[in-house]
Amino acid sequence: MLARLAAVRALSPANNPFFMAALGVLTSFGPMGTDMYLPGMPTIGADLRVPQDQVQWTLSAFFLGFGIGQLIWGALGDRFGRRGPIAVGILLYGVACVDCSLSNDIAHLAGWRFVQGVGACAGPVLVRAMIRDVFDRDRAARTLSLMMLVMGAAPIIAPLIGGQILIWANWRWIFWGQAIFGAIALLALCSLPETLARDRRSSLRPMTLALSYRQLLTNRAYLGFAFGSACIYAGMFAFISGSPFVYIDLFGVNPEYFGFLFGINIVGMMAMSTVNSRIVLRYGAERMLRTGTALAAAAGLVVLAVAASGVGGLWGLVAAILLFMAMMSFINANAMACAMQSFPHMAGTASALAGMLQFCVGGVSGWVVGLLANGTATPMGAVICAAALLSLLLNRWLVRRPTPSHTAP
C-alpha cells in the first residue's frame, strides 16, 4: 500500500491520475465541516436549550477559525512545503471533532468548532497554493473549476449523511462522521507529491511576513479579487447559516430531506464550473469574473424579492437561491486564480489572506442572519442580496477592465 502511494506520488501532477481527486478531497473540509451538521442545528438548539442565534454561533465559530487559521497555514506552507502543514491540520481537525461530540453546552461546542475550523482550513488553503505552484493563471482557474467538479459531491453528500445519522442516532455522531472524513483525507494526502521546491521556500521571520502582507494589502487588484470573492462567500454563508431554520422550521422540511434541497445548489454550481472550465482559457479569468459578479448581483436581487414577498413559497425560494449559488462558480475559481497570479513567490500567503477574508466575512454574515432572525426568510435574503451587490461594486471599483483574451483552449 505504502509503496503504491509512493509510486503515485512520484508522478508529475499532469500524469498523476489521483492528483485532482486527492486535491478535491482536501478542499472538501469546508463543506464537510459545515454541511454535514446543518440538518442537526435545530436539534442541537433543542438539546442544549438555546435559541437559533446561539446555535449559529457554532457555525460562525467554525467560519472564523477556518478564516484565521489560513494565515497560519499559508505562512507555514511557504516555509516548510505543502504536505507537512496539511497533515498537522488534519490531525488537529480530528481531535476537535471528538471534543465537539463530547460538548455539553453551546460555549464549549462553539469553542471546539473554532479549533476544528483552524485545522480544517490547512487543506483548502495549501491546495490552492499547490495548484499555483504547478499551473499559470488561466490554467489554474481551469484547474480550480475542474476541482470543484471533483469536490462537488461533498456538499451534496454531507447534509444527506447528517440527516441519515439523525434518524438512527443523535447529533453528536455527526462529528464522529466528520472525524472519519479526516482519516480519508489523510490517506488522500499520502498520494500527493510535494509541489514547493526547497529553494523556493520563504522565511517565517515576523518582518518578512509583515512585508508580504503589506505587499498584498496595498495591491489594488488583489484587494478587488480577494474582497469581491469574500463578499460572495458572505452570501453563501448567509444561506448556509439561515437555510436549516428557513427550510426545516419555517417550511416544515424533514431534516433527512434537507440535504436534497441543499444539494440542488451544488448541482447548479457544478454545472457552471463545467462551463467555466471550458471557456475560461478562451475569455480569460478576469473577464469571466466580471461577468459572474454582475450575474450574481442580479440573482441576489431576485433572492431578496422572493424571500420578502413569499412568491412561489418554498420552491420559489429554492429556485432563486439556485441562481445565486450557481454564479459562485464563475467567481470563486477565477477570483482566487487572479488574486495569486502576481505573487508566485508567496502563493501560500496570498491564498491564505484571500481565504481568511472569505471565511471571516462569511462568519460575520452568518452571525448577522442569526441576529436579524424573525421567523421569516427575509433576513437571509437581505444578507445574500447585500453581499452580491457589494461584490459587484468592489470588482468595478478596484479591478481594471480586462483586456481581450488571448489564450487558446
UniProtKB/TrEMBL annotation:
One of its GO terms (molecular function) is sodium:proton antiporter activity. One of its GO terms (biological process) is xenobiotic detoxification by transmembrane export across the plasma membrane. The chain crosses the membrane at residues 18-37, 57-77, 143-167, 173-192, 221-240, 260-281, 293-311, 317-340, 352-373, 379-399. GO terms for cellular component: plasma membrane. It comes from the Bacteria. It is found in: Cell inner membrane; Cell membrane. The keyword Membrane applies. Keywords: Cell inner membrane, Cell membrane, Membrane, Transmembrane, Transmembrane helix, Transport. The keyword Transmembrane applies. It is a multi-pass membrane protein. Residues 17-403 form the Major facilitator superfamily (MFS) profile domain. InterPro entries: Efflux_drug-R_Bcr/CmlA (IPR004812), MFS (IPR011701), MFS_dom (IPR020846), MFS_trans_sf (IPR036259). Pfam families: MFS_1. Gene3D superfamilies: Multidrug resistance protein D. Its main location: membrane. This is Bcr/CflA family efflux transporter. It comes from Azospirillum griseum.
